[in-house]
Design brief:
Blueprint: E1 10-15, E2 20-27, E3 30-38, H1 43-57, E4 65-71, H2 77-94, E5 98-101, H3 103-118, H4 121-124, E6 129-138, E7 141-149, E8 155-165, H5 166-179, E9 187-192, H6 196-199, H7 215-222, E10 224-228, H8 233-245, H9 264-276
Parallel strand pairs: 1-4, 4-5, 6-9, 9-10
Antiparallel strand pairs: 1-2, 2-3, 6-7, 7-8
Helix pairs in contact: 1-2, 3-8
């Protein structure tokens, strides 16, 4: 199994969990090239040609690919399957390691890398930041997770990927921070593809619109920000390299998309609301 740190090996990464068809090539922690295009409902038509075109543009032949990386979801049921199927096929044909990455984590990680590159060093070093990626799952629900990051390279998952009811999710974040006010991050960034999803949840000046009480809740609201951010396959590749360097890879035949589902309590609450609305 080749090491992704070896300069002759590159990582081919793809993600189709959203309306964005994203393909990228990374090598040794650097981005070699990437392609992003809106291709809703047409991912299966273009994914193979986009990968081939990018490899040709970057002069990276199949023999130089050391890792096949893919966004495992959650996201669009049909979309996630397309990338996973394509990645599994390539990994099997080429005899390369397959490394899956959370699509939500890739969304958050790509945003943080870009923010570090553009923010001033003084501000970037000012403390921990939470990043909450959101993908619309309809009916008041979102695919979401939470990650903490710092300029010193810290990157940690705070909440697992899941599909959650909006109001429960934001209340749980507030409760978590209220229980330990000393851990309140400098900023909490809420990301969605267009910003419209977070606009439903965040009020004026980036404050959480969900009603809450108490000083700790006010402190949480005051650090919330929102941003429109598109998933970038380069982040999938970079995260996959990190996994691979830790000795982690996935079984090509057993690998499957992560669709996630509501917790039992949330599912019952959602069903009750649907019933009462009739």
């Amino acid at each position: 199994m080749g090491s992704s740190s070896d300069k002759k090996f590159a990582t081919l990464a793809l993600d189709t969990s959203t309306a964005m068809l994203a393909v990228a090539i990374t090598r040794g922690g650097e981005i070699v090239g990437r392609s992003q295009s809106l291709a809703e409902r047409n991912h299966s038509v273009y994914v193979s040609s986009r990968m081939k075109e990018l490899m040709e543009e970057c002069a990276v032949p199949a023999a130089d690919i050391g890792i096949v990386a893919v966004g495992q979801g959650p996201g669009s049921y049909t979309g996630v399957r397309i990338a996973v199927t394509a990645a599994k096929t390539l990994a099997w044909i080429w005899g390369k390691p397959l490394v899956g990455v959370s699509s939500l984590e890739a969304m958050a990680y790509g945003f943080w890398r870009e923010r570090l590159a553009t923010a001033s060093a003084a501000r970037a070093d000012a403390g921990k930041v939470w990043i909450v990626p959101l993908m619309d799952a309809r009916r008041g629900q979102a695919y979401c997770a939470c990650f903490s990051a710092a300029a010193d390279g810290e990157w940690r998952r705070e909440e697992a990927d899941g599909i959650r009811l909006f109001e429960n999710w934001f209340e749980s974040l507030e409760e978590r921070l209220a229980a330990d006010p000393g851990q309140t991050p400098r900023e909490i960034w809420f990301l969605s593809e267009t910003g419209e999803l977070t606009a439903k949840l965040l009020g004026g000046e980036g404050r959480i619109a969900v009603a809450s009480q108490g000083a700790s809740a006010s402190a949480v609201r005051s650090v919330c920000r929102e941003a429109a951010w598109l998933l970038d396959a380069a982040a999938v590749g970079l995260l996959a390299e990190r996994r691979f360097l830790r000795g982690e890879a996935d079984d090509v035949h057993g690998f499957a998309p992560n669709y996630t589902q509501l917790t039992e309590a949330e599912a019952k609450l959602n069903a009750a609301r649907t019933e009462s609305a009739r």
